[in-house]
Amino acid sequence: GKKTALWWYYLDVVYPSPFILAGIAIAATPSLIFRGAFARKQAARALAGLAAAIVVSQAYFQLNFQRKVVARGEMVVAVPRLSINAAASPFETLVTLPLGYRRDIVRALVREFGVEPEAFYRKVHGAVLGLAEENRYLVAYLSPPHGGPRGARPAFDPHYLVARAAGGDAEPGATRSRRIGPYVIIERRPIIDYESWRCAVTIGGVAGIAEWTRLRVPAADAALTAREGERLWCRGRLDLPPSGRGVRVAVSVLGWAPFDAVALQVGSRRLAPVARERRQDPLMLKAPSGWSMGIGWASETVFDLTGSAPPGESVVTIELAGVGQIIGFDVYEGRSW
After folding, report:
1. Residue 55 sits in the same domain as residue 133
2. What is the pTM of this model?
3. Considering the domain boundaries, does residue 4 fall inside one?
4. 322 and 211: one domain?
5. Do 14 and 112 reside in the same domain of the chain?
6. 72 versus 143: which is more confidently predicted?
7. Which of 161, 188, 215 is the last residue of a domain?
8. Which of 101 and 85 is assigned the larger pLDDT?
9. Is residue 141 part of a domain?
10. 208 and 159, same structural domain?
11. Over the stretch 288-305, which tens digit does the pLDDT of each residue have?
């Protein structure tokens, strides 16, 4: 459409169409084949039984599928296993957040945590919710005048992480949290200075960078491109807490090609990732010429900063490896996948 994107998973609304058409065809078959009233009646009963069996089997499949989706909190589609011809599919396994969970998460952020629509895309972090465009219509709909009153907001300027819930109810460093199925919304006083980030592309190391590009994080339109042999570097500041709790920072990257954060340097220490997850992600982005769609990649890389630097402000430099264009870039405490 002209106002919003038609996301690929919306196509499930056409799922009943073949069965409706098949029902019409079955209803017309007896009168076309059999001339006698008794024969037509028997044929109609047999076809009705067949249709009922199909309906029951489909209902069982749908209920079983729904239970699995609710328990897992994700819709997982192994596209190569669904091939209908000999052509190879460019898609691999696709994972998406069900619309019900997406609606409940956005509603809680807007109504219970009091996140303003204009602040939603710079204060809500994590790879769970995906592209900003996937949530824009829900944020607009659930906000006043449609969404009703907002929840109370804390005195400080909070940021929020949407993540898969870990074991236990305690969320380190959280001022508030809200569990929604297998997901949790975590409110924190951010340790990351989101206004301080800048990025650059170079063939050599970070010491050879002469000019940096400022980037407001989270960035949904970074448009940073790395060619073969180049590395992408991003630098910003964070404020390590004085408490003895562990600190883990995640780097989330979304692009038209696979990109990974391969190292994080804080002070004189170069840290390797402790966890990483990468997923293929269909992208639909709004451009001046209209909507463009293609195969994208999302990755989340986690670094453990515990004991890596003294409490207080530190400069961190993140090294990203990949060839192609980055669209989204974010850094946040914890992890979402």
Report:
1. no
2. 0.78
3. no
4. yes
5. no
6. 143
7. 188
8. 101
9. yes
10. no
11. 676 677 788 999 999 999
User: In this structure, are 167 and 300 located in the same domain?
Assistant: no
What DSSP designation does 8 have? G
Do 149 and 118 lie in one domain? The reply is yes
**Where is average pLDDT lowest: 151-155, 205-209, 263-267, 274-278?**
151-155
Whether 2 maps to a domain, the answer reads no
Across 1-39, b (16+ Cβ under 10 Å) vs e yields eeeebebeeeeeeeeeeeeeeeeeebeeebeeeeeeeee
DSSP designation for 5: -
CA 219 to CA 181: how far, in whole Å? 28
pLDDT at 1: 41
Which of 213, 219, 253 lies closest to 235 in space, CA to CA? 213
82 within some domain: no
User: What's the number of domains the chain is made of?
Assistant: 3
Q: What distances in angstroms separate CA 256 from CA 129, 209, 323, 326, 336, one per listed residue?
A: 18, 24, 9, 7, 21
Q: What is the rounded distance in angstroms from the CA atom of residue 93 to the CA atom of residue 297?
A: 12
Beta strand 159-164 with 124-125: parallel, antiparallel or unpaired? parallel
- Kindly list the strands in the beta sheet with 290-304, ordered across the sheet, starting from the edge strand earlier in the chain: 75-78, 93-96, 275-287, 290-304, 248-255, 324-333, 224-226
Q: Choose between 107 and 133: higher pLDDT.
A: 107
Paired strand residues for 200: 233
| SS3 of residue 39 by DSSP | helix
In this model, does residue 161 exceed pLDDT 80?
Answer: yes
Amino acid found at 285? L
Calculate mean pLDDT across residues 141-157.
70
Please report which residue ranges of the chain form alpha helices under DSSP H: 17-33, 37-72, 99-107, 117-123, 132-142
Range of the domain at 61: 9-72
Mean pLDDT of 115-120: 91
Q: Are residues 114 and 183 in the same domain?
A: yes
Q: Between 241 and 2, whose confidence is greater?
A: 241
User: Are 102 and 135 in contact, with CB atoms under 8 Å apart?
Assistant: yes
